[in-house]
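Sorry to interrupt, but I need a hand with the structure work. Leave the record below and I will have a look:
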Amino acid sequence: MVVTKIQAKVETRKVTRVAAYIRVSSDSDDQLHSFSAQYRYYRELFENSPDEVLSEIYADEGITGTCTEKRAEFNRMMNDARRHRFDRIIVKSLTRFARNTKDCLEATRELKQLGISVYFEENGIDTDHVSGEMLITLLGMAAQNESVSISNNLRWGIRKRMADGTYINSSTAFGYDYIDGKLIVNERDAEIVRRIFADFLAGKGVQAIAEELTEETGELWHHQCISYILANERYIGDKLLHKYCTTEMLPFKKHINKGEQPKYYVRGTHESIIDEETFRKAQQLIASRRSVERQFHDYVFSKMIVCGNCGHSFKRAVDSGKAYWICGNHNKNAANCPVRQIPETGICSAFVRLFNKLKANSGTLLKPTAKQLEMLIMKKQHGNSELITARRDMVDAHDQLVQVHRLRESGMLPDEIFNERKKEIEFRLFRLKEKAVSVADTDELSDRLNKLYDLIDLLEDTPYLMDFDESIFHLAVEKIVALSENEVLFKVGGGLKFKERIER
């Protein structure tokens, strides 16, 4: 007699990956405290839970909740949901999630299709339940009506103050401090403003100026910030009000006021940093550079093709009415590089063939690769002490921000010191957020995964190509390596590489 022991099944406990979403709508002391408290609450809520683990905290601050377009963290959360980075979302209330019924329903429906539930704590709504959507609709409509009413009242008051010349902007231009209801020149920052104008008029580009300031000050400067300063009339002591306007109904959309609503130009509202002649010359130079940029239109493959033999960039040439791309090194001297010119039509045809192949084989080639990357990222994130430390440091920094606001309000902290300390903490928070994203997603792997999913989405959303499409090409391809005049290698999203023959 032979007896075989059959082991009892051991049920493994399924651990639910939970994401928390936080949003506060202003920079007031109460809201800053609320932000910090919510962040700490969600971090501690799941520390000892055997069934749930906190996957990520997404936190938007200081912005309106009526539209999801500019909520970077909300949009990052939705993108991560599509990548199945978590199983459930928890949020304080429906109004923190959205004040627009359409956006709220679209988001929750998409999440439900992805198998991800949303739990609104204060409302007691769980989208896992069938009745949840009806409750969301009713509450969302009430919140939306309230938001429209509040917005219309605020806009009426703002327009009236603009017309009277008494409107005070909510933001202070760099180079000024807002003290006792007046814009006062901050001499330390004003020197940087003067230098930006001087460097620009001396011939430097906005990117070069931004890079130099970042290196010298230790603070991150973007070229968009330099461009904004150069075009801002505040620096000659004037104010142009109502540069932007907002639509009357939800979803509220802010756009440049091109004349559909009145603007108000108020002269001499505060002390100037730049004289009018310098400002005028800067505007002329800006207009001149834009005109030159418009004259030189990049071709479809500009800066996209490199030589696989010598590493030089390819340039476009036209011979007998036909366009070709040729290695810059070979073009100087054929003896420098053996790779000869490639017809532009050949490159276009090669991309169309590659795109259609990838579309046909996405399920067997690209999606398994994405899953492998996901598993690798999850392994590297598990027990990530750097991520835990970064999140705790962010909470501490928010607490410090709350404290300096309270000290200022109590009169114990002068405005000058408050502004300096506030900038330091906000810069530290910016760096910590960058670090948290970096260590959480392990930089390169996460970037590859996101680009690979973008490519998969593009392939699924786009029909098979019959002809070359420039916009699809730029969304799919990162670089082309010319291996020879007869073969090219396409580098696509996710770090994948594919060879294609050039048909002549």
Remarks:
- The chain has three domains: 16-146, 168-237+272-295, 298-504.
- The mean pLDDT is 78.
- The first strand starts at residue 16 and ends at 24.
